[in-house]
Amino acid sequence: MSASKPGDGIKRMDEALGIASSNPGDWLTANWPAPANVRTLITTRAGGVSKPPFDSLNLGRHVGDDDSAVTANRARLAERLPAEPAWLSQTHSTVVVDAANVGKPAPEADASFTSQAGIVCAIMTADCLPVLLTDRAGSVVAAAHAGWRGLCNGVLENTVESMGVAPIELMAWLGPAIGPDAFEVGAEVREAFMAHDVRAEAAFEPIGDGKYLADIYALARQRLNALGVSQVYGGEHCTVLERELFFSYRRDRTTGRMASCIWLADD
User: Fold this and answer.
1) At what angle do helices 8-17 and 67-78 cross, to 10 degrees?
2) Is the pLDDT of residue 18 over 80?
3) How far apart are CA 128 and CA 152, in angstroms?
4) pLDDT at 25
5) Rounded to whole angstroms, how far apart are CA atoms 145 and 137?
6) H helices present in the chain, as ranges
7) Backbone angles phi, psi at 38, to 5 degrees
8) Domain containing 172 — which CATH number?
9) Hey, which bits of 76-139 come out as E strands?
10) Whole-number pLDDT of residue 20
11) Where are the alpha helices (DSSP H) in 112-248?
12) CB neighbour list of residue 221: distance below 8 Å, 6 or more residues apart
């Protein structure tokens, strides 16, 4: 008898009730030239069981959704993964942990890495920027939660350092986040980024009354390029404007969370 895989139980339940399991077409994968053994999966709001305003594939237990619905949604995600994701308790920090050592309760951290096959690095977002990374050899992967505070304070720098390879050997993919036409910020955010690098000014468009539209994708590319990571892909979505596809805290306040996952395959 073969060993059960995470998600088998919910899959059998769905089949018994005549409910279609989540369609992989509902979700995304990173569009980048990563090695064949590097796998990614990025959920959208589609394919789950949560009721409004968490409809439907909410993966966050901390947002007020029914816990049994979150459990079912996480099981549906697990159907597509080699193992349960190494969930983090995200606090907009710059802390990076080894995903192989993540247990329960989830550690307070905002990025994880692994060089072990079958370990799934994962972060949850609903406007903040998910950044997935790997090296050209496919020997290590990482996932980082880059909200503006973490991005400004160095979460990408810490993540790259934790991977233990030369930055020139790395590539990054920028997942769905709040876009440059929707991310309104105050002058203090602009000043915080410019205090690190004056070139960040180019990522802020003034709109009057001391407010700016910020391009978090451009800011992330700038930070990665400064580290020596020149292969940067993605960054074409807007979680706020693409209402049917993504959760957005900025747009809805009470809403669900999506997951961006990356792992090394052993086949």
Assistant:
1) 110
2) no
3) 12
4) 54
5) 23
6) 8-17, 67-78, 148-153, 155-163, 187-196, 216-227, 249-252
7) -95, 120
8) 3.60.140.10
9) 96-98, 111-114, 121-125, 129-135
10) 37
11) 148-153, 155-163, 187-196, 216-227
12) 174, 232, 235
* Domain assignment of residue 1, yes or no: no
Q: Which helix (H) or strand (E) holds 15?
A: helix 8-17
pLDDT at residue number 26: 82
* The token pair that represents 172 in the structure block: 């990054």
Range 222-237 average pLDDT: 98
Indicate the range of 3-12, 77-86, 185-194 predicted with least confidence: 3-12
d(CA 221, CA 178): 15
Place of tokens 């949560």: 50
Report the pLDDT value the prediction gives residue 22, as an integer from 0 to 100.
43
Calculate the alpha carbon distances from 224 to 165, 166, 190, 233 in Å: 14, 12, 18, 11
Q: Report the distance separating Cα 99 and Cα 66, nearest Å.
A: 27
Which two structure tokens, joined as six digits, stand for 101? 């050592």
Overall average pLDDT of the 225-230 stretch? 98
Whether 173 maps to a domain, the answer reads yes
Whole-angstrom Cα distance, residue 101 to residue 5? 21
Chain centre to alpha carbon of residue 148: 14
Does the residue 2 lie in any domain? Answer: no
Say how many domains are in the chain. Answer: 1
- pLDDT tens digits, 147-156: 999 999 999 9
Please say if the pLDDT value at position 124 is more than 80. yes
Domain with 228, as residue range(s), is 8-264
In a domain, 178, yes or no: yes
Amino acid identity of 159? T
In angstroms, the CA 65 to CA 256 distance is 8
